[in-house]
Amino acid sequence: MRAAVLHEIGQDKLEVLDDVEAVGFGPGKVRLRIRATGLCHSDVSAMSGVLPQPAPFIPGHEGAGEVMDVGDGVTGLSAGDRVLVCWLPACGVCPSCKRGQTQLCLAGFMNAGTPNFKRPGGDVFGFAGTGTFTEEVVVGAGCAVPIPDDVPFEIAALIGCGVTTGLGAAINTAKVEAGSSVAVIGCGGVGISTIQGARVQGAAQIVAVDPVASRREAALRFGATEAVSPDEFADAKQRVTAGEGFDYVFEVVGKSATARTAYENTRRGGTLCIVGAGAMDDNFQVNMFELFFDEKRILPSMYGGGDVLRSYERAIALWRAGRIDLESMITHRVRLDGINDALDQMRTGESLRTCVEL
User: Cα–Cα distance between 115 and 136 in angstroms, integer?
Assistant: First the structure.
């Protein structure tokens, strides 16, 4: 079968090969035919080494498709079912799951260390235990979440990661209050979803911050009340909040420098929400006096900060009701052979989300 493979960490191009085989099918597993997958910046971060991932590997974790076969012991799924890929399934029995913090379950991360593909030259890993830049993949049954018939594969793929992450940051983690002021730093697919979440929650002012003009323009279409470049952020803070700072600031880049900017633009007693996934050696610093004196809440948000199955259902309900726009987030569509052009468009900020159709 065909798949896009990164041979070594640090390479910026994928090789599309036709000699890849999905392996590991058996009890508790399902085999999926991927129909659509989105490009998420986490894929690029794994390719560059910012996020840990063994190589060679197949990127992609934001996918949707059809069940081809189910292993022994799998219930609730059968061949032909339409599903989205959940890259962080809950085991249901670990301490995090029992506390209701299923987004912190580590069972899915353990799968990332087990290869689920092979080539004549040896084993190939799937990013985050999945790997959706491919025609077929074998995953645990918990990674295959049934979707209603009226949800297109490309929409379901977005819900599988970026939309759930962004909406959840605003709704689950920060719990944006109606009438509040919000700033979102980084307006790619996840940032746009955060903006939509803040709008759904009733924020009065939503300032989008991004260096790319096309992304600023897009942010306005998706609910931002204004959009500024990073150089203009200080002026926006003065104008919108009289210099006090925003009630909520979302960092959706994954860098300590932008996290520090977000902290400085959060009002005293306000909320800084960290949504971007960064590197292990990139340290965010605050001094002990400001941490105490300013009483700003610093809230990391992992995969939307809540039960992902409930978050999927909520995203579908909001989309059906016209409260969020997911179709317009897909700015580019390619086949698998165009994957490297799509990655370049993501790196330059030209695209919000690219749908790879398989």
Answer: 14
| Residue-wise DSSP of 207-250 | EEE-S-HHHHHHHHHTT-SEEE-GGGHHHHHHHHHTTS-EEEEE
Distance CA 334, CA 345 (A): 12
- Structure token pair of residue 29: 């597993």
DSSP one-letter code for 270: E
Who contacts 207 (Cβ-Cβ below 8 Å, separation ≥6)?
181, 182, 183, 184, 224, 225, 226, 227, 228, 233, 236, 240, 246
Question: pLDDT tens digits, residue range 130-165?
Answer: 999 999 999 999 999 999 999 999 999 999 999 999
Whole-angstrom distance, CA of residue 249 vs CA of residue 306: 19
Q: Which amino acid is at 241?
A: T
Sheet hosting strand 117-119, strand order edge to edge: 21-22, 117-119, 122-126, 57-58
Instruction: Tell me the whole-structure pTM to 2 decimals.
Output: 0.96
- How long a stretch of residues is the chain? 358
Identity at 338, one-letter amino acid code: G
- Strands (E) in the chain, as ranges, are 3-5, 15-17, 21-22, 29-38, 57-58, 62-70, 82-85, 117-119, 122-126, 136-140, 144-146, 181-185, 205-209, 226-228, 246-251, 266-274, 297-300, 330-334, 353-357
Question: Does residue 30 sit in helix, strand or coil?
Answer: strand
- Site of tokens 């491919």: 134
Q: What are the tens digits of pLDDT across the range 292-314?
A: 999 999 999 999 998 999 999 99
CA distances from 256 to 261, 296, 297, 301 (A): 9, 17, 16, 15
* Residues forming a β-bridge with 289: none
* Rounded Cα distance, 319 and 329, in Å: 12
Residue matched to tokens 């697919």 = 189
Q: What is the pLDDT of residues 45-100, one digit of tens each?
A: 999 999 999 999 999 999 999 999 999 999 999 999 999 999 999 999 999 999 99
